[in-house]
UniProtKB/TrEMBL annotation, chains A, D:
One of its GO terms (biological process) is iron-sulfur cluster assembly. This is FeS cluster assembly scaffold protein NifU. It comes from Desulfofarcimen acetoxidans (strain ATCC 49208 / DSM 771 / KCTC 5769 / VKM B-1644 / 5575) (Desulfotomaculum acetoxidans). It comes from the Bacteria. The lineage of its organism: Bacteria, Bacillati, Bacillota, Clostridia, Eubacteriales. It holds the Pfam family NifU_N.
């Protein structure tokens, strides 16, 4: 059911873990489904220097989390905010229809982390 | 890579003796059993012999055996047929919160059609309390449908006690024995039920064929499908002959080997349960500690989601399931695990390992070897495990 | 003794290529297609490939194909599902007097549940008049169900004309194509129907598996069976995987060979009809003289009762049927023959010979050689033949 | 479905035909089923000397007709009147449940023929 890319990202997820000195953290969760994604950012000069995730969810949830961190790394915040669900799913060579909402979650978690960073650094 | 099939509750491989029994009916003996001529008669004879075998296997009379397209159809037929034939007597139906969807959704659909339904709760082991059944029966109760053994957690229900209570109150009992047949000795008179469901592909028979046992004298009628007059008007449509022959052969084989398989599987299952409980922390065994199917071990692993777990095991060649096969792939948490009083997060971490006669100690060893790393890796990724 | 099978309308032998296609799914690939793991996925892939083959064979989209347990279930599902989903629009259903019981009894059952039903008459050839359909449609009409070709007399109905009329009036059309598929070119868009029924064992596939085609956008819902979420909620219960694989293979084969088989069978059938009409007196050909299935010859022999005829032929190794296989053995005269306006005595003398691809000219010759003595002997015994 | 005896009597029915100088004729028919049985008798000295039948009906109808003529031949009228449906069915090694009514017909036809004879010879 899953593409090879999804399986690869599930088996060897990129950027798993926490960042202790993260300056942006976003968490989204869909209580009805039970899945939770948490993204940690290190932003420097408006650029995502480091990013890590933790995810409780299905195979697609893990893979989309992994993919979104890869896509976001090195991007400016503006570029990262433009990362859409569709882009994440596409980068994974597609997701089964039932699992499309997982890609929403990954992008949402990223955006939440960026917003968190921006909130914290508004005054700057 | 080693492949280990631990999903016998979802479906079983067909016994080679069963395939051999079916083959002539896929080739040489192709007649329609309703046909008058020799091609029909030779097949009719085989279908009736199959009916006798099934009757023998569950202690019934051949006339009480109706062949269907599977467990789902048998459940629907049983419940709908009793409900509509006994409307004049009452409109109350009792079931439990841990039934298979084929039962639960049928009862709920009747609820929408004006029947009064009671869905009994279960204890933390998934067991229905016979006292609750007794208390729920009213003058209007016409049917109690409680499964023999649960497909997700393996808990064996006190069907015999429930049937005794029901009988004293003049209420019919249906039991879904899809998971128990071939694993627990099963006799319809001993159980005391009026209707009972079997599905061949759960006991090394083919998919797409099942049985509905209907005790003589039960006020029941085919109410779902209309058509020709096959199966003494109980199930219309040309009979799935190779399926019926295969089902009967499979029933014969599992009945003959019951004691031996039960002992063997109990040993494997206990080794598996012990191995998991001893080597993994934050895990609970779901289902009853002792009143459980000999082939079923089910757990919930904290901080882990079921599908990720299945996928990880699958990558190691191990086939397992999380909750019922029918609902995996859907995003709902299993109604059975919810009924045990588990939280959503815990329920999502469920893993069901259902063993079969071809599994070996080595299969269990391999699983126990692979599992810790799988659990550790997923927990490491889990935001829930932090705290 | 020579054995001749002339009862292909009752059921067909399974094509050996079909058995070969099924075998791996009875042995190696046993997984449940709903299972998440590799055993499930490999089977899921095969089921979806089968769906595509079937879709291709009838010009449909794979999403419009639902696998069922046979023609009877498909008919019931089609009619009941449309009726209950379109109740708000109207409660009128139109069918014909010559439908299979799976359609006719389903429509009649809806009649008892408060639906308004019209059973259209047929002409002496068993043909429905599209003008009658047009005249019967009211503002409340929601469904017209008219079979593609009749199983007892082979008459091909003007389904395309009927569907055009229905479409103009916003009414859904279901057709039972159990007998026509593989014998007449069949394309759902060309026919213009919303729902269509197939049954594998009538086209050299296995028993116990069928198809319901449901055109995209049709207001239809599964209303008969409740359970798991297989077949995109259209048909619950574990899929009959070997059956589905076999059905698809059979559909592929008959589609590829349609023109060739049609020519061959038409020739055999015409030889048979001519032989009977030329050599026996007091016999009528039932069904339409030209608009009839290429493989079906049906007659009524005066002064003779059908079962005696079948028995006599059977003693000579010839398998035939009298009326529909589903009603032979019952004492009712066939509703189809009655609808043609025949008397009881004549209708009782009906004989159906339905040919298949393995029949030969020699089979026909043998039958024509045997028949006169059979007829003569029975007429000699008949008190009706005196006058 | 049929016993060998039934098949034998269907294949080689005894006493088929008409008797021109019959002194008792009985016909029964079940219009809903469509089957008709006609029995011709020659009675002499209260004994059935000759008997023949004609039947329009299923295999069981033919076989029971044949059997009833065989059972009745040579019997006194009183003995023949006691021939029951069950006896006919039993003599054929049983009939399928659905076909039991055929044996009724055969005995009924025989009894009708005897009644016909008795009516005609009442005055005697
Ligand atoms: C307890 C129980 N009942 C009913 C069913 C349905 O049987 P089937 O898939 O043969 O329709 C199943 C299997 O999924 C089951 O486990
Ligand atoms: C026209 C027609 N419809 C429906 C059916 C029923 O199909 P099945 O026997 O597969 O249920 C038959 C066959 O008996 C048929 O000839
Ligand atoms: S995490 Fe819920 S379906 Fe993907
Ligand atoms: S003659 Fe009617 S069933 Fe025997």
């Amino acid at each position: 059911m899953y593409s090879e890319k999804v399986m690869d990202h599930f088996e060897n997820p990129r950027n798993v873990g926490e960042i202790e000195n993260a300056n942006g953290i976003g968490q989204v969760g869909n209580p009805s489904c039970g899945d939770i994604m948490k993204i940690y950012l290190v932003v420097e000069d408006n650029i995502i220097k480091d990013i890590k995730f933790k995810t409780f969810g299905c195979g697609a949830a893990v893979a989309t989390s992994s993919m979104v961190t890869e896509l976001a790394k090195g991007k400016t915040l503006e570029e990262a905010l433009e990362l859409s669900n569709a882009a994440v799913a596409q980068a994974l060579d597609g997701l089964p229809p039932k699992k499309m909402h997982c890609s929403n979650l990954a992008a949402d978690a990223l955006h939440a982390a960026i917003k968190d960073y921006q909130e914290k650094h508004k005054s700057a | 890579m080693r492949r280990v099939y631990f999903d016998h509750s979802a479906t079983t491989p067909i016994d080679t003796a069963v395939v051999d029994a079916m083959t002539p009916y896929l080739t040489e003996y192709f007649g329609n059993p309703s046909s008058f001529h020799s091609y029909g008669r030779e097949v009719r004879k085989a279908v009736e012999a199959a009916r006798e075998k099934v009757a023998l296997a569950i202690g019934a009379d051949p006339k009480e055996i109706t062949f269907t397209s599977g467990g789902t159809e048998s459940d629907n037929m049983a419940i709908h047929g009793v409900a509509y034939m006994n409307k004049n007597k009452g409109n109350h139906i009792i079931t439990s919160a841990v039934e298979h969807h084929a039962v639960l959704n049928t009862v709920k659909a009747l609820g929408k059609e004006g029947f009064d339904i009671t869905i009994l709760p279960v204890d933390k082991y998934g067991m229905v309390n016979p006292d609750d059944v007794a208390a729920a029966i009213t003058d209007k109760t016409i049917l109690i449908t409680i499964m023999h053994a649960n497909n997700e957690i393996g808990t064996i229900q006190p069907v015999k006690e429930i049937a005794a209570i029901a009988k004293a109150r003049g209420v019919y009992v249906h039991t879904d024995a899809v998971q128990s047949f071939g694993k627990i000795p099963l006799n319809v008179d001993d159980l005391g039920v009026n209707l009972l469901t079997l599905s061949a592909h759960k006991f090394y028979g083919p998919k797409g064929v099942g049985v509905l046992y209907i005790r003589k004298g039960t006020r029941w009628k085919q109410t779902l499908m209309h058509g020709g007059s096959q199966e003494r008007l109980r199930r219309t449509g040309t009979e799935n002959v190779p399926g019926i022959i295969g089902l009967a052969k499979a029933a014969e084989i599992v009945s003959a080997n019951l004691q031996k398989e039960q002992d063997y599987l109990t040993k494997l299952r206990d080794k598996l349960i012990k191995g998991v409980m001893d080597n993994i922390d934050k895990v609970i065994l779901t289902g009853h500690p002792t009143q459980r199917l000999c082939n079923l071990a089910s757990f919930c692993f904290e901080y882990i989601e079921g599908e990720s777990q299945l996928l990880s095991l699958d990558m190691k060649g191990i086939a397992a399931s999380s909750g019922s096969a029918c609902t995996s792939g859907s995003l709902e948490p299993s109604h059975v695990l919810m009924a045990l009083g588990l939280t959503h997060e815990i329920a999502h971490g469920s893993l069901r390992l259902s063993l079969g006669k071809d599994n070996t100690e080595e299969d269990v060893d391999y699983f126990l070897e692979v599992l810790p790393a799988v659990v550790q890796r997923l927990r490491m990724m889990s935001p829930l495990a932090e705290d």
